[in-house]
Amino acid sequence: MALKIRLARAGSKKRPYYHVVVADARSPRDGRFIESLGSWNPLLPKDGERVKVDADRVKHWLSHGAQPTDRVLRFLDEAGLAKRDARSNPKKAEPGKKAQERASLLKKAQEDAAAAVAAAAAAPAEEAATAE
User: How far is CA 100 from the centre of its chain?
Assistant: First the structure.
């Protein structure tokens, strides 16, 4: 049986509250679970008591082969119970194709406008030089 340490949603609509549970990987998100290990209330401030986890039971289930999900692994890493490798996705911050196209068109338009202003400023100066 593949075990997962994951979140089970509770709380009402638009007021999420999650239980950290050990469950069979095949069971539904809010369905049957083996044991409840703690809770997470994302509505509380970050410096408050958002995550509560029973460290002894988490260690027990990790030693029995339970695999935490990514979000739960973040909580366990903060608590010092498990190690989460740092991830790097440098392309995540880049804008999409359409936004890059719009940015290049905008940049080209600004360059054309700057060139037109420079040409307009240079034209009276040339006329004054030829008139002398």
Answer: 21
The pLDDT tens digits of the residues spanning 61-105 come to 999 999 999 999 999 998 888 888 888 888 888 888 999 999 999
Instruction: For tokens 């194709």, name the residue.
Output: 97
Q: What Rg value do the Cα atoms of the chain yield, rounded?
A: 29
Q: 3-79: CATH homologous superfamily?
A: Ribosomal protein S16 (3.30.1320.10)
- Report the alpha-carbon distance of residue 130 to residue 81 in Å, rounded: 82
Q: What is the C-alpha end-to-end distance of the chain, expressed in Å?
A: 95
Phi, psi of 31, deg, nearest 5: -90, -145
Region label for 93, one of left (φ > 0), alpha (ψ between -120 and 50) or beta (otherwise): alpha
Q: Taking a C-beta distance cutoff of 8 angstroms, is the pair 38, 53 a contact?
A: yes
